[in-house]
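FIELD: query
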Amino acid sequence: MNMRFVRDLAARDPRSVARFVAHLPGLVRLHWRLLRDPRVSVFAKAVLVAGVAYFVMPVDLIPDFPLVGIGWLDDIAVLTLAAQMFMRLCPPRVVQEHVRLIDEGG
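FIELD: result
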């Protein structure tokens, strides 16, 4: 799983969105595997769970209605930041192991 597409998104490369969507199932699988791994700290797991909980909760900082589209920005921002922080808090060796296993089809 090549993580270069994340840098391309930051650089605003128009093709990066398509690459991101293509890698999304692998990212979800990686996050799920790390969430279940006992070598990842409870704090890191709590960060991800809190981000997902905020995303699905009906209470928002910016209301979804009447600002359809704009109201989802805070949900997406919180979820993205939580996922990034979760990955930073996970031991790099464990992340690399799971990336390798996913790449091998496991």
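FIELD: remark
The chain has two domains: 1-38+91-106, 41-89.
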